[in-house]
Amino acid sequence: MNYETTMSATLDGEILQDDQDRKQRRIRMAAIIAAILVIAGGAYYFFGSSSSAPTDADKAGQAQTVTVVAPGRDNVVRAINATGTLAARREIPVGVVGEGGRVLQVYVDAGDWVTQGQVLVSVDRSVQTQQAAALEAQIGVARADLQLAQNELDRAMQLVDRGFVSKSDVDRKTATRDAARARVNVANAQLAETRARNARLDVRAPVSGYVLERNVETGQTVSAGSGILFRIAKDGQLELQAQLSEDDLAQITVGVPASVTPVGTDRVFEGNIWQVSPMIDTQSRQGMARIALPFDKALRPGGFASVEIKSGEMLAPVLPESAVQTGRNGSFVYIVGKNNKVQQRPVKLGPVTANGLIIEQGLDGSERVVLYAGGFLNPDETINPKLLKKQ
After folding, report:
1. H or E segment at 352?
2. What residues contact 360, with CB distance under 8 A and at least 6 apart?
3. Which stretch of DSSP H or E encloses residue 171?
4. Is residue 239 classed as helix, strand or coil in its secondary structure?
5. Cα separation of 28 and 120, whole Å?
6. Cβ-contact 96, 224 below 8 angstroms
7. What are the pLDDT digits (tens) for 376-385?
8. Cβ neighbours of 317 (radius 10 Å)
9. Which helix (H) or strand (E) holds 169?
10. Distance CA 366, CA 368 (A)
């Protein structure tokens, strides 16, 4: 029993001694590694930092290569692009001006040309014709009464000097003659009024022009409350009604040329601005420019069209859209400054041309502007610029 106890105690002591030895070896190894790191750091600080610091050439070699361009200044045509609605320049609605009636015949259709005074619709006038005949008969009766009164007055005038007729009788006969003459005049006026009314039964073209719309059929009963029967474009004149911003309206005047392209066709129609809206809509902040166009059946009122308004020439830099970035404060470009560091430059954009965007403000054209990859750059970042020669 004592022997086993002694052996167990001996073994436990040896195990404890081994554990302590391993711990001490770990501590010594950690101390050696720490000393090596401290020595290496000191050596780098005193001997390696000055020799390994990157030079400007090294930085240039490490910087990304970016294509830049010097835009210069070009003589460009300022163009305003917009869309609008085609319409008749002067649209004349035509309705019933008389008392109306049953339509006997419609003589024109949409798409026809008419002349001023031409009959568009004939209306039944059988009743009105009989009324005019009755008035003509009344005129005959009134004229007969007038002739009788005139004859009686003439006879009385012959007898008054002989004393057979008093002057008072002559005065009464004169009044009777005058009343008969007045009745003739009234009957003539009534007949003329009736004939004028009958003439207004037919619907006539108030102006010469192109019929845009027809809203009446044979057999239909029409009256003053029937609404619009026809719409006529006076003299066939057409226009494009383009909505423009305040800035664009300030750049145009009457007579400025414009090119109109209707939707669905490649045809281009040349016109010019004949009216600029004197007011701005308070909600949309836009006004209307009305562009006069020659008549053509391809120009259908009510359709849409795009327009390019040539508002004059200007000398300004032109850049591709890839060079222009948009931020919180508006549009900007990156220009290459000293030491090949990029800087943001705010710009004011003009209209789009076939060659790119017109830069109205912010550049004089001599700067080196980042052409591509502007969205991946940061202000003051060093780049390796590659100048692209302008064609």
Report:
1. strand 348-353
2. 314, 316, 347, 348, 349, 350
3. helix 167-199
4. strand
5. 118
6. yes
7. 788 888 888 8
8. 26
9. helix 167-199
10. 7
